[in-house]
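request received
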Amino acid sequence: MNDLKKDSLTVFDKLRILTDAAKYDVACTSSGVERKGSGEGIGNTAAAGICHSFSADGRCISLLKILFTNHCIYDCKYCINRKSNDVERTTFTPDEICELTIQFYRRNYIEGLFLSSGIIDNPTYTMELIYLAIWKLRKEYRFEGYIHVKAIPGADPAVIQKLGMLVDRMSVNLELPTAEGLKSLAPNKTRQTILKPMRQIQNGIQNSKEELVLYKHAPQFVPAGQSTQMIIGATPESDYQIVSVAESLYRKFGLKRVFYSAFVAVNEDKDLPALPGGPPLLREHRLYQADFLMRFYGFKAEELLSEDRPNFNVLLDPKCDWALRHLEYFPMEINKVSYEMLLRIPGIGVKSAQRIVKARRIANLGFEDLKKIGVVLKRALYFICCNGRMMYHTKMEEDYITRNLLMADHKAPASLVINGQEMTYSQLSLFDDVRFQNVNAVQHGIGNDRKWIGMG
Amino acid sequence: MEKTVFICEDTLEGIFTGIYDAYASRIGHDKCELAAGDVPLEMFCDYIQVLPSKEKAEKVIRTLKKQFGEERFYDLYYVLCSNREDKADVVYKTVVVGLSNDLHQNLLDHLSNPYVARAFEIRRNVANEVMHIREFIRFQELENGLLLSKITPQNNILPFLMPHFADRFPLENFMIYDENRKLAGLHQSRHNWCLAQTEGLNPKLSSSRSEQERFYGDLFRLFCKTIAIKPRENLNLQRQMLPLRFRNNMTEFQ
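response:
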């Protein structure tokens, strides 16, 4: 605790150190709650979330994402702030956090505050310090914008409860997809201590909703819901294991979001994998695609992957991949099939499907209309017909369609020769050595609120 | 076929009066066209200059709200705030389609109709710009405490931006200045916002930054630089999410 007092760094240095220490946390959304300003403070929130900038890695900057302190009593092997690392350490004062948040917010740099922390002394004490800072920001500085805080596993449930009444979103990091992974890399954490606050927050949200039915102006507990994140590629889990974990988190813990964080090697440790190709970004991207398919498109984890096919296809997104393995459903008649089936067509996203359903009530749709609606025809055309006709003459054959899809995305090599043998695309996905490590495709936005619906 | 063009002032009142006059003329909707602002003259056309009338415009607004609902009315409002030349005619024809097909609140769902599809497209374009500017707009604090922001939007989006920021900063004095239109959105602490047409911004006003301004600008630039993860660097993705055209007015890119 003496550390807290003898800190003589400037705000400038503290911001540099505590931003650098916080940046590996992926969640940066400001969505989930719509709240007007009270007229007596500063701030409001928008349900869809608002991004304010994008950093050089293409990730969105929505919240002032900082640690309260990077002092930590834990020694998690993947973490830059682990106790055994020799890094500059510092701690913000509550007023510094409040001033930064308010001054950034007034200039429309940010949508709110994301506050996480290393552990000083013990989880409960740390959580208390965070509570005091947030209380000050809400009550003294009258900040009504978005606040996301980390709940620290092992902290007294009473502190989590009162903090939850002040913030919009809480998250507990799952850290690693399985309990074994956690044991090997985070010796001070257990799956049980992580799931406990997650359950508490879930129950808190549920109770708060019930109270809201009775009393319209009852204060709300974590109104924007809770999220979590896990590191991908530090431990040997398969994609199938990961999506199954995510699916059960959504189902059993009522999470709003699960975030996936491609492992970035910041420490050298014999227990950590070497990743010469850089962080597994394509793999992370595929997991986000699958996550959206599960949340908005009605897919189940076992439809996307299985014990026999435990990993995603490098070349095709999970939805195309599913469609190609289920050509028996296609081509689908745009003017007839249900909304649920429309969502299964590659090239049609949630918005397009909704527009199709509304527009076809008034008049029959043709291919020209689909274009205006926003359907990605170059992908959809192999899977749909309008008024009984497909757009072009198309063979309903997996290899033929795969080749054409890849050519449309400029991903198709002229011919595929592996070990001196020409391959078909369906054979390709069986090959493990052409897996993610070697492919560095262009990534799309991660951890954002924006631009995700377009995935067809 | 000879057509009649109703030329209206490029304001809500002007265009709604145009719609009223086009209906009242009984010329037939397929022979009528609406144009807002300055239009290039064509051969074989009759031109009718529309005089903006508050009374006629209000009648049209009342009818639209009643027939299509408040939400669809605001959709059309978005269209009318765009900078597209065909916007007045698109709204006029969309209204004709909506009334003759009894579309009511489903007005913009009828995407197989070319006018509705165009209205839908323009609305989306304007709404997207509102969304982008709402994210990327930056305020600077002047010596007198006023927060000032300059924007250069394609469409006339101040009417949609001001409510958002007035709700967000109820206790601030702030001004959003649309350089393309010389239009200022003004908000005084604890008051309603308003729009004012100006002759241009007083350069003295906008150059007197507060002492803290530089400090917080530097801090935010530091934050943006530090938050990026080096092994993930992807400038293409950054450009895709935040196109260069927005960056001129943004603190972190200065």
